[in-house]
Design a protein that fits this description.
The chain is mostly helical. The chain has eight helices and no strands.
Amino acid sequence: MASLNVGSLGEYIREQRRHAQYSLRQLADAAGVSNPYLSQIERGLRKPSAEILQQIAKALRISAETLYVQAGILEEREEHGLGLRTAILADPLIDERQKQVLLAVYDSFLKENGVHQADQDEPQTLEENARKGRISNGDR
């Protein structure tokens, strides 16, 4: 599992914010966090949760997986659909059965398109992802 480098995460968020031409206040409002909290994240003084990173990513219109990798929550992988699978498994708005159905539909599309998964034992739950070192236990 990658180690947390809060300073570089904050720098990365600041760089993305500037690229999106947002002020600190505008991004804080769009992400639903306080201006001082976002400032502390950018300066490397605070470690945001996976949920806060997801809110920031949504406001910046970048993938949450990118921020998870920067934060050390998720290892960077070249596997097909890992970001999608992680997002589905981490979504608190749907239950486990719905998550499994979404993953099954995705897998059927991959099969239909002739895409072979690199890892046939793809984790199907957050706990399995944590055991395989794809997400940290503290971010489930």
